């Protein structure tokens, strides 16, 4: 469950108020961006906002549920998703959806960020093996693992401010073994979801045996409970999603004229090792300056820092609180010395430095908590040196992702005839964060890469501070 760092009170305030947003897409008098691609599927529920959420489907496959019922649960989920708009921005879906099955044990089916389209989602659902592996229903165990293994940044969970979390449980609501302790664990886990602003829907399935007392039903509101055999239930659930998770934000008075303004704290990291051609360093700076120019055209509120790295990271300039001066920032970017001091690129050290210096909650000089979203754009060839340190690079990247930092990679071709794709794919949350989409940076795609990354920042909303929301009294 990825939440920005403004405290539980802030997250609770916004999510429970239903003010779920995706900047610049909706009826606030703000123009819909040209890179918004509506879902053109037929039979969708009417909405001019789309649906924004990260959902996990949890299917009970214990032996108290017949095979026919288990397959019916899959078809129920497909029907619900068929009614929901799954529009995209730059290839990124507004709706992420993953799945697990459980009986005696939890079994992985697919992660939320592995699904890129509605068609792929349906294929994945059809491929789920619903064969029972036991007559126990360890509901508590399945629910316990969702926050640890699925609602994480590396598995596709996005900022809860923009994409709130939803858990849909298909079960006969019997926890087995049915001791009071296990039943309490199941209920406590559901209550923990609710307290952390994760919505829980329960789809009640018929039981092939005498039904035990309900476990989850007593914890949920009636409008969050659906009957599998109710033919109207899929539509009612889809309608609930459309109304509860719109990609839109009514204008809250506390924000005044800030609605629609985009905010980002952005660090550029330039690989200056010798494993790529020198001209690629110049093209990298060209991309960075064009991104700044694009952000200025979006009327973005941004702060920029820049780092170079070879054997050690070096701060070229850090975040400033001065009024934004795009020309000065671009001048500073062009002045960066990208000549290679050594033939080693310790990418892992750079990532650790960015996390501890630029995006540290402790370092208030460099980080404005709860106002700007955080992003890192890395220009490098995917070759950490020494090569054995590549796993440290991936681990450090995961640390940043789990701290709600978006990592973008501009791929540079290396001159070692080596494959850098392993690092490329494993230090970002998904392939949509890799630029260019195909191949490597060259003189012919500088504009395309810069525009593609800048447009992603165009969807970053300014998150109000607790002071703006009136949750704390200044001074």
From TrEMBL:
Keywords: Membrane, Transmembrane, Transmembrane helix. The chain crosses the membrane at residues 12-31, 80-102. SMART domains: VWA (SM00327). The keyword Transmembrane applies. Residues 54-245, 265-453 form the VWFA domain. The keyword Cell membrane does not apply. It holds the Pfam family VWA. This is VWFA domain-containing protein.
